[in-house]
Design a protein that fits this description.
This protein is mostly helical and about 200 residues long. The protein has nine helices and no strands. The radius of gyration is 17 Å and the shape is globular.
Amino acid sequence: MRRPATDELSAVLARLDVPLGVPEAQGLACGLLCSRPATNAKSRWFAELLDAAALVPEALAERAKDLHILDAWFGAELAALNDSELDFALALPDDDRPFDTRVIALGEFCAGVVYGVGIGIAAQGNPSLPADTRELLEDFMAIDGADTEADADGGGEAAFVELSEYVRVGVLLIHEELKPVTASPGREAARNGTGRSSGNTVH
């Protein structure tokens, strides 16, 4: 299952008056999927989006097409997180967009993940998190506050690419730690090949 095009998702969120961008909404979905059963995660994701949009139930019938697209999007994220080939990708702006726009989007994605995991963990009574997951979430919070005035030509672009990959693989590892699945060769390779953050911030 492939994720709908980012431009289409952005348009859907705008039509529904959801005050979240695509990266943050994707991060929220991922955080919930890492910490809650898929059905519960989807219900809470829709509730968060629609509550933020202040949509009344009577208006939902008129937005059936847009809601169907959101449903397909959530299903695509669920499939990607569980893909044995590690097909999960961040829904960030294209490389031709301004550098600061992409840095902000990565931070918004990280904020969504942290918030989604927080919701899921709270629903479980706030159990202790595995050390790696806790450290990754702390890193994500730091990335959310990263400097957006970095110089793309002064090494910032390379750092951004590295940081984006760290976040991508970090989400997969959080998902594996909080919702253990049978290890696949691809996931084991990701675990063995992913180092801890070594000050990879965008300066």
